[in-house]
Amino acid sequence: MTTIRNAPAAPPAPVRRPGVAPGLLVAVAVAAVATALGTLVPVVGGPVFGILLGALAAAVVPRLRGERWTPGYGVASKTVLQASIVVLGTGLSLRQVLAVGGGSLPVMLGTLAVALGGAWLLGRWLGVRGDTQTLIGVGTGICGASAIAATTAVLKPKQADVAYALGTIFTFNIAAVLLFPPLGHLLGLSPHAFGLWAGTAINDTSSVVAASFAYGDDAGSYGLVVKLTRTLTLIPIVIVLAVLKARREARQAGPGDTVAALPWRRIVPLFLLGFLAAAALNSLGVIPGSWHPALSALGTFLITTALAGIGLSLRLADMRRAGARPLLLGGLLWIAVAATSLGLQSLTGTL
User: What's phi and psi for 67, nearest 5 deg?
Assistant: First the structure.
């Protein structure tokens, strides 16, 4: 009698996970188109076009939402985003903090306090809480899309929260570029006073440049220095947000987990150390001045790529559910910061 033995079962085929390249290439392609449009319409800028085109492409071509593309979008919205912050640090100089002078620091710090405190108070009143509230406050108080990008790298919020914050910042950037120069002339502001007003009350650096130089070259130069100096406040604020997030995660993990037990990299993100190191190298003159335009363009393109990845991952229905309250929060904060800047200039004798 012949015994028939069953053949050993074949090992299961390995599960092929989608790679990073397809989605990342799509994000880069969207960023290239957005950069070109941003050059044609600088008031809007490449980063805003990046998230808008990404969201539009995902809505028009549903196939782009598939699993094949998702890993690449994730790398764009996280790794590329962090790299962009480091590169943008090469455009800052720690000497600029001293160049601005002690007379402008009360205005910068006061308006920053109003933006952050106002986001907390008004956010509670309007029912805009969580990451959306934080992102709008930081974007309004510091440097718009760049501040939102740095905060996003730490908080890892929902894509809809990021999109809503960027949309809010974009709306009031456009309003500021159009309204600030005529208002400055109506108020009789000197170029120095207008540059300080624009540098502390307009969100994005590109919009500060557009509004300030429309007022005059002296206003433009001073406004840009104020804005770049204000950008350095990202360092302590992002560290504080990282600590708060780590504490919250430790509490959620259960008893026994404390902040002291967490890796230092979760308290001080590596990209933030890179940002500070880049600014320090630029301050020491290690980075040649002739490199600055190319590095600035690279940093902006990386942010545009990151925001394109966020846009491609975005579901517009998530934004519609949030309603108009985040936009109202951004508008109230914008008005409060603009008024505070003028008030503090008057009190400190810089108006």
Answer: -65, -25
